Amino acid sequence: MHECFNWDNIQKLPPPQRARAKAAADGSLEDANFFFQVILSSPTPSQRILLPIYWVILDNKPIPTLLRQIKSRNPEILDRVADSVLLVAQGALRSVNFLILAKAATPDCFADLWPRLYPWLQALNTLLQTPTADQAGSILPPESTKELYSAMASTLTLLWQHADGSFRQYIHDEAQGLGVVVGGIWKALVRFRYPEGVHNSAFHLARDFGRNLWGSANRMAELVEGVGGRVSTIGALLVEHIQLAISRANGRVEDRDIRIVFPASDILAVASVSSETTIAFTQAALEAGIVPAAATAAFALGNHPNAAFARSGVANFLTFLRAAFLVKDPARWMAQALRASLLPVVLLFVRGCKNDGPGREDTAYYLKTIRECLADSLPAMTMRFSVLMQLRVSLEQLRRQLDVNAFFPQGELRDLWERFLQLAGERISLAERFKDAFGAEDLTACSNDSCKGKCKPEDLKRCARCHTSAYCSKECQAADWKKRHKAECGKQQKLLTSGEELSEVQLMRFRTQDANFMQALVLSDLAAPAVSSILGPALVRAYHTHTPGVINANPHILLDYTALATGVQPSVCGPSTLPEGCPFGGTPGSAKMQVVFVKLRALGDSASAHWMKIVLAADRFACGVDARRVASGIGQGKPEDAGGDVDYVRSWAEGTSSSGDESTSAPAKGMDELVGLVGSLSVESA
C-alpha cells in the first residue's frame, strides 16, 4: 500500500472489495476499472456515496514529509516524491473526476471530500512550483506536469459545476489559499497553451473561480501570489491568455477560441470595477499591453455575434476599456484602443444588438453597455489633443471601409452616434487650428515618457539605430529601451500623412500638448457655449452643498468636463483653497483631477448666479496658471447682473479681477498668446 493512501479507510470496505481496492490503490489499472464498476452497480445511493469516500480520499499525513523531502534536492529522494505525486494524479484525482462525472460521488458528499482533497491540491501546486536543484524546472517532466495540472483543473471545476450554492460559498469562504492554487493552475495552463482536452476545465477554472476571487482583498492577494506575486504578472498573463486564441483581428475564430478568451474578458471586467482592485489591477493590465490585445479580440468576437459567449466577451472588453480611460495617462490607452479598431468593434456590437430577437434577457445589458460607450467613453476621447489626432485617422479609415449608417438602427443609438460624430468633428477642427498655431506637428519631446526634465528640441539626440526616438540623456534612452523601445526599434515609423497611422513616437509628442489643448478647449467652450461644449446637457451634473459658508447655499453646477462622472467624488471648497485633487473612487493616490470654481451667468435662471466647478483631467494645471486666478478672473459678473453676457476670454486676457486677491495678477507667461488664439478660434466657430 502506497503511503499516500489511507489504509484505515480501505480496511473499512466490504471484504470482497478490499483486495481489489488495495490493488487499485497500488496502481493496478485492471483493479481500478473493476472497482469503478462495483461502485456504479452499488444497490443503494448511500453505498455509492460512501464507497468513493473510503477509497479515493487521500490521507493528508504524508504531505509535510513530501514537502520536506523536496527541499533536500537529493535526486533519489526527488524521484520517490515524483512517484508519489504521479500516483496521486493518476490514482486519486482522476478517480474523483470519474466518480463525479459518473454521479457516483454526489454533491451531498462533497463536504466530506473537500477537507481531504484540498490539502493535496495545495501541496501538489507547491510541489510543482518548486524548482529542482539545477533550476531546470519541476520535479516532474513537462508532459507529466501538464497532465497533473490538467487533472487538478478538472477536479476543481467539476466540484464547482456539480456543487450547490452552499458548498460553493463554503469553499470560497473557508478554503484559505484557494487563490494561490487557482492562480498557479491558471498560469500553468496558459504557459502550456491550454492542453488538448482541458479547454472546458480551463474555461470554468478562469470563469467560475477567477471572477469569484475578486470578491475580497484577501482572495485577490492570493491570486496575485499564485501567478507570481505581482499584479503586473496577472496583466501579462491575461494578454498571453487572450493571444493564445486570438492573435489577429481578422483571423478565423472557432468556438474553442471563444471559450478560451471569454474567461479572460470576464476577469478583466470584474476586476476593473472591483473596489479592491480597480486602480492597481487596471493600471497593471494596461502597462502589460492589454488594450491592443483586448480590442483585437473584441473585433474578432464581434464578427461572430451569435456564438456562445462572443457578445458577452465584447461587452466585457468594452466595460474594461471604459474603466481604463479613468486611470493614469488615459490619452495613451485611448489612442491604443483606436489604433486597434475600437470604432469597428462598437459598430459590430451595435449591429449584434440590432439583430437580437425579442425576449432575449441579456439584450438590456448589451444596450446599456453600448449606450455608455456612445454617450460616455467615445465623447471622452475628444478632450485630448493627441487622441483627437488619432481619432481623425480612425474616423477617416472607418468612412472609407464601412457604410456606418448600415450598422445603426433609427433611434437612440443612432442619435448618440451622430452626436459623437458632430462633437468629434468640432473638436478635431479646433485641434487642427491649435496644431497649426503652435506648430504641434513639429513639437519634439524626450521619447522617455517618464522623463521629468525640460530640454530644448535642439538638445535631443536621436536613436542611432532607428533615427526615430529622441532622448535628452543616456539615462532616459536606457530607461526607455528596457520599458518600450527595445521591442519597437528598427521597425518602420512614419509621420502622419493623410490616411496613415500615427506612430507611437508622434502620439507621445502630441501628448505633451494635451494639457495646453485642454485649457484652450475650456476657454473656447466658455467663450462660445454650444450644444457640444462643456455646457451641453449631456456633460452637466448638478449637485448641492449643505456646508455653511462654503461658496453659497444655492445649488451649483458640476461641469463634468471629463464626461466620465462615474467614480469621481468631488469635494467642496472655496476658490482660495484651489487647486485640489479629487481621487477616483475616493482612493488615495489614484488619478488626480484638477478642480476650478468659476462664477458664470445663471443657466435657465436669471435671478441668481451659480458657481461652475470645472473639472480638468490633468496632473498639473495647464500652462502653470494658478487656479485661483482662473476662478476669480474668468467670471466677472455679479449676482445681480449674472444674466448679462460676459466676455470671459477678454476679461481673463486683460487680467482684471473683482476679488482683490493678490494672486490675480497678470496672466501667466504664454497665456496671453493662448487666450488670444482661443478668442480667435471662438469667433471663427461662432
Q: Overall mean pLDDT score?
A: 66
Q: Percent of residues in helical segments?
A: 55-70%
What's the architecture of the domain at 1-174 in CATH terms? Alpha Horseshoe
The main sheet comes to: 4 strands, mixed
Low-confidence stretches: 46-56, 491-500, 526-686
CATH topology of the domain at 1-174: Serine Threonine Protein Phosphatase 5, Tetratricopeptide repeat
User: Tally the helices: what do you get?
Assistant: 28
The number of distinct β-strands equals 6
Question: What secondary-structure arrangement, pairings included, does this model have?
Answer:
Layout: H1 7-11, H2 15-25, H3 29-40, H4 45-56, H5 62-71, H6 75-101, H7 110-129, H8 142-162, H9 165-174, H10 178-191, H11 199-212, H12 217-227, H13 231-245, H14 255-273, H15 278-287, H16 290-302, H17 310-324, H18 330-339, H19 342-354, H20 363-380, H21 385-401, H22 412-438, E1 461-462, E2 470-471, H23 474-488, H24 504-511, H25 514-527, E3 540-543, E4 556-559, E5 594-600, E6 610-616, H26 627-633, H27 648-654, H28 671-685
Parallel strand pairs: 4-6
Antiparallel strand pairs: 1-2, 3-4, 5-6
Helix pairs in contact: 2-3, 5-7, 6-8, 7-8, 7-10, 8-10, 8-11, 10-11, 10-12, 11-14, 13-14, 13-15, 13-16, 14-15, 14-17, 16-17, 16-19, 17-20, 18-21, 19-20, 20-22, 21-22, 21-24, 25-28, 27-28
